[in-house]
Amino acid sequence: MAFQTITEMFLQTTTNHADKYLYYQRRKDHWEGLRGKDIRTTVEDLSYGLMSMGVQKGVHAAIISANNPRWGMADYGILCSGGASVSIYPTLTATQVAYILKHSESRVVFAEDEEQSGKVLEMWDDCPDLKVLVVMNDARVTGKTLKGDARTIISFVDILEKGHEYGKEQNLDFEAMCAAHKPDDLLTLIYTSGTTGEPKGVMLTHKNMVTNIEGSLEHITIDETDSLLSFLPLSHSFERMAGHFLAFSRGTAVYYAESMEKVGENMLEVKPTVLLGVPRFYEKVYGRVIESIGQSPAIRQKIFWWALAQGKAVLKLEMAGKKPGWLLRKKHGLASKLVFSKLKERVGGRIQFFVSGAAPLSAEIAEFFASLGMIVLEGYGLTETSPVLAVNKLEKFKFGKVGPAIPNVELKIADNGEVLARGPNIMKGYFKNPEATAEAIESDGWFHTGDVGELDEDGFLKITDRLKSILVTSGGKNIAPAPLENALVMSPYIEQVMIIGDKRNFVSALLVPNFDKLEAFAKENSLPSSKHEALIKDPKVLALFEQEVENAMQPFARYEQVRKFTLLSREFSIEEGELTPTLKVKRKAVFDHYGDVIEALYSESFT
Questions:
Q1: Beta bridge partners of 353
Q2: Looking at the predicted structure, is the pLDDT value of residue 524 above 90?
Q3: Domain parsing of the chain, residue ranges
């Protein structure tokens, strides 16, 4: 690579693409862009402002905000000043925010708006190292009496002005500051989402991130001609590396989605060529397509399924290194004209590929998208690995597998089935937690991922589940819940699933219905009530779900199959602490909330 640190990369990109619009944000009725030179000027003044407030090497500054250009510039400002950034999910509660601010010893925090600032103000007394709150939308924030002059609330614009003056007074050299960083310097602290216990602060260095960019680009190629729609949280390592650092290093234009709810609308407007998503995103897109087809006239349904069959036939041949015959090419061309091109227009019409990460993607959904001519490249990694360990390639991919290791990473499977990884992208360690670091990283550099997996003859990795999630029934059978959960959420009537069965004599499930579909079912079948609590107890609804579960369980061994289930009246949510910010189910929280419901599944004999 032409750079060894992220600050060197920032200098190169803003020099080479000074006049190109690199960041876009929607303002009322249009997308407003920021050129490379505008970003550089802002980051330069921001870094000086932070330096004037004591941010330097060894000092941490946090960001709690949804995705937007100021998030990116705040990150670069912290790094260029010499500090390390701490990313905080904006969905966290005030107590959770305070834990990270205190544990990370952050001196400065950038907060998006009044809501996020309110969390900081509420808990500020519990964060002794925190001295400065920067309000990113420039709103006036009140509601807390500051003690003396030790703490400061300042707007984003004001810190830029302060920095501009400080830079002139001190005669600071921005390029020299950026060049002063070393590859082994701390870049960022990213806190794990904490599916079990308190989150841990993952220490990633410049070298970790730079080498992960380098390795990832060997499998996935993007450049200055591409555009990316950013909607996964920048607080998460996947979006942070790929959608923030990697994209910027290539001069790729990044459009920041207005919200999760407006991703579909934004795709139509900005027509991205690349999009990063988690499996839940692709599941929802798949569900909407299937639902739309199901509501179409019979002739359109027939055309769609015929077209999909042609797509699958061509895909199967191409994946085997063969070319389709003349007749199949003709059929595929017609299918593309009648169906595939129209579906591609729904995602902007210019998508070159999607990338999926953060959790396993159903092989069926990956094949569905690929058959329509829209490849979803599934990858795998963890926060502790910067994050990418493996990812499929456009020229060679396998459904249900997360691809081969990127070039600078080694993978192997331990005797207990756990995936171990080694490479320059492995974290420096957990902040202030040497015991957990020693447990995770062996003396010879192998990192314990905590995931169970298999490597095939081509070096493609398949993740079967988390080591801690493996269920061992009272009969001694080991069962991975993820494949069961993936099969069940393929049902249009099932929104969320949690499989249960550890130390039990059979497997059961908590099912959250897709209530939009269920309400439509209730109307079609003249059920007496459309209220969720009543619907989940209705005999016709229970019969429907029994059939859906039975269909989904067909491929599995008898001992793996879900034999009892309970329908829940609401979705698992981040607000209730049942989901991580990347939408992974927190099993402990669900057990805490639904312990009585789970026990009821096993309270009666079942054979």
A1: 274
A2: no
A3: 6-181+217-273, 279-349+351-467, 470-601
CB 572 within 8 A of CB 509: no
Q: How far apart are CA 303 and CA 309, in angstroms?
A: 10
Write out the E strands in 218-358: 227-230, 253-256, 274-277, 353-356
- Note the pLDDT of residue 605: 47
Q: Looking at 148-223, which runs of residues are DSSP E strands? A: 152-155, 186-191, 201-205
Q: Note the pTM of the prediction, 2 decimals.
A: 0.84
Residue 146 C-alpha from the chain's centroid: 37
In DSSP terms, 404 is beta-bridged to 460
- Based on the number of CB atoms within 10 Å of its own CB, is 320 exposed (0-12), middle (13-18) or buried (19 or more)? exposed
pLDDT in tens, 39-51: 999 999 999 999 9
- Please enumerate in sequence order all residues whose Cβ is within 8 A of that of 409, keeping only pairs 6 or more positions apart, or say none: 215, 385, 388, 389, 390, 421, 422, 423, 425
Give the three-state DSSP class for 382. coil
Contacts of 317 (CB under 8 A, 6+ apart): 323, 324, 328
User: What's the CATH fold of domain 279-349+351-467?
Assistant: Rossmann fold (3.40.50)
